[in-house]
Fold this sequence. Notes:
Layout: H1 27-37, H2 41-55, H3 58-64, H4 69-79
Amino acid sequence: MRRGNIRDLGGLATADGRRGSTSRWSTSTAEAAVEYLLARPEYLDGALDRLLAEHGSIEAYWAAAGVGPEGLDRLRDVLLQG
């Protein structure tokens, strides 16, 4: 997807929740949506820094979210499949 080209955003849902054309989206709204959904390294680094500052570890974060050891093992298995 080329940034700033609204035609490349055709799979996004419209403002009323239907999927399809982005003709109801203003360019600034569509660009803001794309920017929000990007997984830029600096965004991910910031999120990880905050998670570690607040919880101390990824395991503690998931424990606070109610994920037990078995769930964490399953999560690892799914995410590390290659």
